[in-house]
Structures are given as structure tokens and as C-alpha cells.
Fold each of these.
Amino acid sequence: MLKRTFDANICVMTKILETVGGKWKPIILYLIQHDVNRFGAMKRSMPKISKKVLTNQLRELEADGLISRHVHVARAPQVIEYHLTSLGVEIRQLIDHMVQWGLAHFRVEHPEEYKEEYEDVA
């Protein structure tokens, strides 16, 4: 019998899920990984996200060290680009494995739902 107690406030899995969890963060990381790294381009790729939520999610990802923000002030208007940090690249690899696991399991249950959207992933 397991006698150890657990505290979700200090659990590493809880921290991981807080860092990359939610509706938009994995998608934002995916877009940045594939060079959709400017705010407007991300917003066009995710038409259902509000500007406020996208801004907040980018700030949180930057604060957690998963992305970096680069401002090009030499141009008018200034251009802001986001890039994955080394930590962001590592977490994307983890997310990619999770997607593969999900596709392997959820495709069986919902074949039509996952057929077209993830054809190139499998």
C-alpha cells in the first residue's frame, strides 16, 4: 500500500500542465515552431481567439521561458516576432509525442473527426 502523500501545488506534472495547458498555448507553440511568428499571422491562423487572449497567452509563454519576443525597431512600423527558446523546443517535442499518442487512440473512436485535420501528422 502506498503511504506517500501528494500535493498538487508542488507536483511537476501540475506545473507542466499549467505551463502548456489550456485551449491555445499548444497551438501558439506549434505556429511559432512553423514560422508563424508574428501576432497578425497567428491571429489569422486562429480566427476564434481574441486579441486579448492571444496577447495574454504570448505573455505567459514568454514569462515561462518558452518563447522569446524580438522587436525590430529599425522598421516602420516596428515588427515583433516570437521564437521558441530551447525550453520551448523541448516542450514542443513533448507536445508532439502527446499528439501522436492522441491520434493513435482517438482516431479509432472518431475516425472522421481526425481524418483530414491531421493527415500530414501521422
Amino acid sequence: MYATMRMTFRHLIAWREAHALTLMIYKITRSFPSDERFGMTSQLRRASSSIGAQTAEGCQMPTIAHRKLYYDRAYASVAEVDNFLELAKDLAYINDETYRSLLIQLNKVGFLMKKLAVSQKSPTPLTSPTTPNLPSKLASRNHATTIAHSPDESAPEPHQR
């Protein structure tokens, strides 16, 4: 019959606001010194576009844990943009008014990204598989890692590097 329309990243307010921030960043970095083309200009553009890209990728992930991982990465990119905006202001590449308007948009994006990441309730964290519980005799042979022991046994000390 009719195909159901799946929600895409374009439906997310966080993505739309991140996209608006990226457009603002591209516009203001046009006026950065030409010797910054492969330095701060590139870093700031990549960091800002990463917020939207990570959000878009996360939206398409099949599990809650994977989506949360991408949204957390997008949130981390907000901090990277914040760092470069502060540097751009301190180097007088942008004026105070431009800095304030970018910071307002960045704070909005950061708030939305954090809320989006927190909204992804995962029953189990996305980690590597755990080591199965082994009988004590087998567990005591493995000195490199601590494996589950019976309550009355102490775990072996890990090797020092």
C-alpha cells in the first residue's frame, strides 16, 4: 500500500540549527587571512560541518546505542567550534558582535545536541563484548586481565608496563 515516511535528519531541529551555524561559519571565515586557509579556516569549517554530519549519520543508525554515540560526537564538535571561535576572536579575525551572534547560535546547537544525546536511552552501553565468567582455575591462569572470581578470591594484580 502506502510506504511510511521514515524520519530523516532534516526533521531534527538540532540538525537544522547546526546547519545554520555551519552556514554562518562558512560566511565569516571567507574574511579570515589567506594564510589561515589550511589552518583555522579549515578546522573551523570542518568542526562546524561535523556537527550536522554526525547528527545526520546518527539519525540513520539502527540502534539507540549507535545513535547516541553519533550524537555525543556531534556534541563534542560543538566544543571544538567554541574553541576556534574564541581563538578567532582573540586574534581579531572576528569582532565582538560577530563572536556574540555565533556564540548564541553555538550555545543553541550545543543545548539541542546534548538534549538529543540524552534522549537516547540505551539499556546497555555500546562497548566491546565482555569476557565470560570462567571457573576459578582458568581465571587464575590469566594474569594480564582481571576476570570474574568467586567472592572469596581476590583478583590477580594486572601487570605493570
Amino acid sequence: MILRIRLKKDYKASLEQVIKIVLARVRHLRYIEFDREFDYRVHDYLEKNYSKSYSKRWTVGDTIVAVFVHEEFVFRTSSNQTITVIYESAISQQKSRITVIASGGGQGLLGMDWGSQSAAEDTLERRIREMTTGRNASRY
């Protein structure tokens, strides 16, 4: 499935439209919020570990948006899955947000993912929580 969407000049309205379209078609989606003081650390981590297939960063007004797409082979399903990470940080806000979308990774007629998509999201969330709180993420 390929989504082709053009962002209008009104960035906020267009981003909300994109999210509505994606939510209607994606089963696995997770939001992670963290303090802006960790922006550089989180962005560097994503750039090093989650940009295997695609990476792009741009600034719109006072908001920095970055998209990272990572593809990996999952042994439990013997297939590839992608992890798409959308990073948003606005100077006027105290929190930054990451949207994590795991897709693919299913096998067979029913497309069973055997938990691989949730596991990929859990791994990223745990790592972000460790970086931004300084605590072991097993407490979450």
C-alpha cells in the first residue's frame, strides 16, 4: 500500500489529515512524548538506528519534523517488516513527540505478525524512555 499525500501550506491541518488517513489503515501505532531537552540525543539515536531505508528532516515554522524508515528481517515470521518513526519537535512546546508505526512482518493468508510489530514498538519505546528518564524502562 502506497500513500501519496501532498501537504498543503497550512502544515498543521495537513499533518492532521495525514494522521487520520494513516490511522484508518494501520493497526500498530504508538505515540511517545518526552521533554525537549532530549531532542538531540533522541534524534541522533533515531538517525543512527532507524534510518536504514529512508531519512528526511525539515523545518516548518518553529517545528522540526523528521521521518525515519527502518526495515528489518523478523525471524519469528520469516519476513521483513518496516518501522516508520515520525519525529516532531516544536520550539513553542515543552514536549516533543515520536509516532512509531510498525508494518509488514505478517505471514500467511491472514498476515499474522505473531507479535513482531508490537515487539518492535516496545523496543523503541523502552530505549527512548531509558534515554529521556535515565531509568531502566522495565518499570514502565
